[in-house]
Write a structure and sequence with these properties.
This protein is an alpha/beta fold. Helices cover about 45% and strands about 15% of the residues. The protein starts with 5 loop residues before the first helix and ends in a 12-residue tail after the last helix.
Length: about 350
């Protein structure tokens, strides 16, 4: 082959390279959605600090989700603040390529229904991957409080001092809704996530907490608390404890308890930002379902005492839309029952 000028040789090399790659005037073949995730980094946002139930679930789910996506690694990113609002807003604004998903408090359903300022995310627009939890919720009092029943609380003639993470959290709103439904006086101490609230109960700074059944076990097994009421039934929950649905006596109370039960059933979910391509979302949903059925995952969940009640992504998306579609009377009742009482400082009795 005769010698060619450098510029001409470069042009020929480019043409040969294009031909070898199978280039043509038609469009390039689309990347298989499953191949998209291979070797990439999956970012999993947990909208609370490290430790506690949401973080434990999020780390376990993300580990096995990455395995079934074929991701190269997973980075768990804790973004606390505003009762899960800060982390949820960041997840909502993330690039919708399927590589950023996360877990946040299902109590943000209430925040959207109440149109709380600060919540920029719209839950009905998010890309729902699936859920891992959903369990009964319990009203637990500390042994130091002396309250072992609803009658004990009512006879005290003063508000029950309860701990909660923040106004936007499920624990806070559920506690205020439950109090309104069954006619209890309560005063909420804000800024106490699950573990901090339990420590405050053990010290005697607060008296009660409304939490998931699994999160209550450290208090109960250690002899630091009593269950005085429950919403729902499930493994490990004493059926002799009064169920809120049997305690309420008014139509408004029935509506509030039904709403609490519906939100509690959607716990420990995984979602992505709006606009994740449909084919990638299907891959995420299939990987999530496979992860939650993995024998290793189930063994780890049992070791960590994490109840698993899975729901696949499409059904979860429908359930979220359904619970966000409430009649006006329920919205009015919710707004009234979840008014923001003055928050007490820990130890302020």
């Amino acid at each position: 082959m005769p010698s060619l000028p450098a510029s001409r040789r470069s042009f020929v090399c480019l043409v040969l390279a294009a031909a070898a790659a199978g280039c043509s005037t038609g469009p390039a073949p689309a990347l298989n959605p499953r191949e998209f995730f291979a070797g990439k980094t999956l970012t999993y946002i947990v909208a609370t600090e490290a430790g506690g139930g949401y973080d434990t679930y999020g780390r376990l789910v993300s580990q096995y989700l990455a395995k079934y996506l074929g991701a190269g690694r997973v980075v768990v990113k804790n973004i606390p603040g505003g009762g899960h609002i800060v982390g949820t807003n960041e997840l909502y604004r993330a690039r919708p390529d399927g590589l950023t998903v996360g877990m946040f408090n299902s109590g943000l359903i209430y925040a959207q229904l109440l149109q709380r300022r600060g919540l920029q995310a719209r839950l009905d627009r998010m890309s729902w991957v699936g859920k891992a939890g959903g369990e009964p919720r319990l009203l637990v009092t500390s042994t130091r409080s002396g309250f072992r029943s609803l009658d004990d609380i009512r006879r005290a003639g003063r508000p029950l001092l309860m701990g909660a993470g923040g106004i936007g959290t499920e624990g806070y709103i559920d506690a205020t809704l439950l109090a309104a439904a069954v006619g209890l006086q309560t005063r909420v101490v804000l800024g106490l996530a699950t573990r901090d609230s339990q420590l405050s109960m053990m010290r005697g700074d607060t008296e009660a907490q409304f939490i998931s059944a699994s999160s209550s076990r450290p208090l109960l097994t250690g002899g630091y608390g009593h269950v005085v009421m429950r919403v729902g039934s499930g493994p490990g929950v004493d059926e002799r404890v009064p169920e809120a649905g049997d305690v309420v006596t008014t139509p408004d109370g029935v509506r509030l308890v039904a709403l609490i039960r519906a939100v509690a059933a959607l716990s420990r979910w995984t979602a992505g930002p709006p606009g994740v391509p449909a084919e990638r979302l299907e891959v995420l949903r299939a990987a999530h379902a496979a992860a939650l059925a993995d024998p290793g995952f189930l063994k780890d969940a049992k070791r960590l005492d994490l109840p698993i009640q899975p729901m696949e992504g499409a059904a979860l998306a429908e359930a979220v839309t359904r619970v966000l579609t409430q009649p006006q009377e329920t919205l009015t009742l919710l707004a009234s029952a979840s008014g923001e009482p003055g928050a007490a400082a820990p130890g302020d009795r």
